[in-house]
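Cross-posting from the chemistry board since nobody answered there.

I work mostly on the small-molecule side, so proteins are not my area. We synthesized coenzyme A and want a rough idea of how it might sit in this target. Sequence and SMILES are below. Is it possible to get a predicted 3D structure of the two together?
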Amino acid sequence: MTKETGIRIEPITDTEYLRALLMKRWGDTLLMGGRAWPCEQVRAFRAIDPDGGLLGFVSWNILRATAMVFTLDSHKPGLGIGARLLDAVAEAARREGAKAIRVMTTNDNTPALFYYQKLGFQLVGFFPAAVDIYRAVAPHLPTIGHGGLPIRDTLELEKAL
Ligand SMILES: CC(C)(COP(=O)(O)OP(=O)(O)OC[C@H]1O[C@@H](n2cnc3c(N)ncnc32)[C@H](O)[C@@H]1OP(=O)(O)O)[C@@H](O)C(=O)NCCC(=O)NCCS
């Protein structure tokens, strides 16, 4: 449950708006499940405050009955925004017949690893040097992450729907 009142979650329907959001963080081509996802194939929800300010967004799509969450960003930590965005994906994906929800993070991002496990996700995949491979198609991906660690590998976590 969102701990701050008045926050609403809504789908992002404008591809150019989504592209602009993604470009600020990750670039407009996302990589997961061994394939590239151009912005046009990415779905998203955003969290909005009562004044229309952006509080966070999640990008995702369904692959083989699994909701693949490409990115999750909360601009106001600890208010339940991340959890609400993931709930919105889970609900939409369940309605479309998905059986699981899968998230991805990188080797350096120990806060996210902790966070997802706290929300009930279990580790299902470790892909050594995956980010190095992804850089061939997405050269903008950062090389240094949390605590100055090199960003190299991806980890995937999953939860049944
Ligand atoms: C990870 C992230 C999405 C969490 O979003 P959030 O809105 O702060 O998370 P929530 O408010 O939904 O948190 C839910 C619970 O997890 C806890 N939590 C949140 N971030 C945490 C962290 N880094 N470590 C430990 N616990 C954390 C919250 O305290 C809360 O616990 P509670 O319900 O017992 O109080 C946010 O910190 C973020 O945007 N990080 C940068 C981008 C990123 O790493 N994304 C994920 C990988 S792509």
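Reply from a structural biologist on the board:
Welcome over. Reading the output above for you: The mean pLDDT is 92. Residues 81-95 form the longest helix (15 residues). Happy to explain the token format if needed.
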